[in-house]
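Q: Got a minute? One more chain.
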Amino acid sequence: MIFTYEEINDALETMSLPRYITREDIKNRYRHLAKKLHPDVGGSAEEMERLNRAYELLVGYIEDFKYSFDEIEIAKQSPILDHSQRFKP
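A: Always. Here it is, folded:
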């Protein structure tokens, strides 16, 4: 599955999530919002459909994303560690 930046950004906004999250964060937020937006509790089918799409997209992105374990990728994933190494004598 291919994802565009805009699709990911829209999904994050739909679920009111920050950029740095875990799969567990997505799952917890989905459950929280589903309790409010489900048609059986006063939400609309359109809202629930949008939430479901955002959830599927974000979980799919996390599952399909391939990490490389080279030095540059690790530095991207842990910028604080890389930053502190720059100032060591």
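A: The mean pLDDT is 82.
Q: Perfect, thanks.
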